[in-house]
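Researcher: For the record, we're logging two predictions in this thread. I'll number them. Prediction 1 follows.
Model: Prediction 1, sequence and structure:
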Amino acid sequence: MPEFKIQHITKYSYDNFVRDSANKIILFPIVDIYQDVIKHDLTITGSPQVDTYVDYYGNEVGSFTYTERHTQLIINSQLMVNTHARPLPVDTMFASEQWTELFNLRYIVPYIDFLKQEYFEGLIELQPVVENERKTEDTPYHTALKFCQYVYKNFEYIKGVTTVETTLDEIWKIKAGVCQDFAHLLMVMLRLVGIPARYVSGYICPNRDGMRGEGATHAWAEAYIPGYGWLGIDPTNNCVANEMHVRLAVGRNFSDCSPVKGVYKGSANHRLDVSVSVGYEDSHLPQEKDIFTESTFPKAESTASRNSYARYMEIVQQQQQQQQ
């Protein structure tokens, strides 16, 4: 039962005064029998009231508006989380029975959302790969593990190789990417054979063996297994998500799990800095002054050393939109 400390800081800096900064945040970890939030301190510039609600996918979402004129907005989330080991699925049902059960979920809410494919021209090329990896006698669980291994072995993990404009087709062609790319590809494969798949955002914590993306933000997929439920599968590390994975939110894809996004009024440009630190309960996490860099905008040589999924969040989803 490991206990982790997590600090996730989002910092907006403006070159002139702005106002009415309205934001939606998904920084509240999932709470269930496998994950406990011992403590959560959320501090925001100006101390605005944060109203919370649960969205369609079960994520706790906060919203706030900072109305005063300001040149800086900092959202600092500090967590202490306990995780518990989850048992693996036991295939007590015949494979044919499990596939029949999945087939019957096609028109049942909420599985419909998690079976719908995103537009992907490469499906024509991916389909024979999926059929080759899948064997008739395989259960959905073993099929999911095989697909996970395929992504892990056939796609190279390279930080910075994908950008905000990178599509699934481009990832398929270059056979490389980072954790969110791996998760999206795995979900495509799972959905092709009728296994509901959803996207998971969160954090992966350090362990002795070392894992890709550890100590920072991370992404993986969950597959729905008959008789078991949602099983986390991490294609970046070719493993079942376990007590080292802290779940933040789930959805159809990354856009449903955006940790911070919003709008503001003003003509000022803005700079965005994001930092995530993850450690064990007795570890030291750096303070704000140790986290933020002095650079005006991230440069290629500096961003290459940071977690690629964090950069993806910075550029795509945490970027504020300007309202004149």
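Researcher: Logged. Prediction 2.
Model: Prediction 2, sequence and structure:
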Amino acid sequence: MKTPQRRVTLQDVANHAGVSRATASLIVRNSPKVAEKTREKVLKSMKELGYVYDRVAANLRSQSSTTIGTIITDVGNTFFAQFLLGVHQELEKYGYTVLLGTTFDSLQDQERLISTMLENRVGGILLCPVSSSSTETVERIKQLDIPIVLGIRELPDLACDYVGLDYQAGAYTAVKYLLEKKKHKRVAFIGGISDSSTWQERMSGYQRAHEEAGIPIDKSLIFDSEPTREGGLLAVEKIMKHPEPPTAIFCFSDLIAFGAIIGLRKMGYQPGEDIDIVGFDNIPEAEISYPPLTTISSFAQVTGTKAANLLHQRIREPVRERQRIIIEPQLIKRESS
């Protein structure tokens, strides 16, 4: 039976490179105090010896962790890809490593991922909660003294750091544009899960725009759905079968809008000409879609950057005052409306 190979230690690397263990330690921690020539020599030794940094052991020694747990709902959604770009770029500046988990909006998966993050002794958690989250989810983490920042979706009545968009203002701006500037009288609202706080805030903006315009809301023009292209396609097929179909559609997200555009074309409508479409998020595909999508920019990358920075601050100062950062939305006008 083959004897297992001994794990290469940092002392082995130091001996091989002809430097002290302290110098080798500075290099694995990306310290700027080491000369570039020495750094290159030690990194070469690490590669030749097959050295792997034991981050868990280092965390135990220092009683701290440079690993951050980030939990999102859908890695396939371009909005979250942009959000994660901001998170990664900001955390890398401070030397953190990101451990990523995806819930696909499942409460059970969220609980499992939180447990995994805690088992891996992460230094903090950046959580984009699933739509069915409760305050018990975060209270469980807070009891273990793990710094946490919520992103995108806020949990009601929970005193926790949060970064997100003013969803009500975004929906209000979009629907006001359709009612007042584009002179529509029947504006549908499709997509999203109605139990979620982000949907309810958009709904508040939708209602406010109608109230200010003096136009009654037809509740039969409101359809929720899964926040996907497929959800948008199914919702628009239902809404356009209405005896008095809408002349414009406000969509919960750009993904919903893309699905709606596909569905409208299947039914013989020309989006942007026969019916106006407005999305929400301004993901990169919105600009190059056909037609280019009018949408509300939710500044996903900026949100990720601010959330990561806020978590870094919370880790450094655990007792600092709670922060709630709300980003103002912007209407981006294109050819779909």
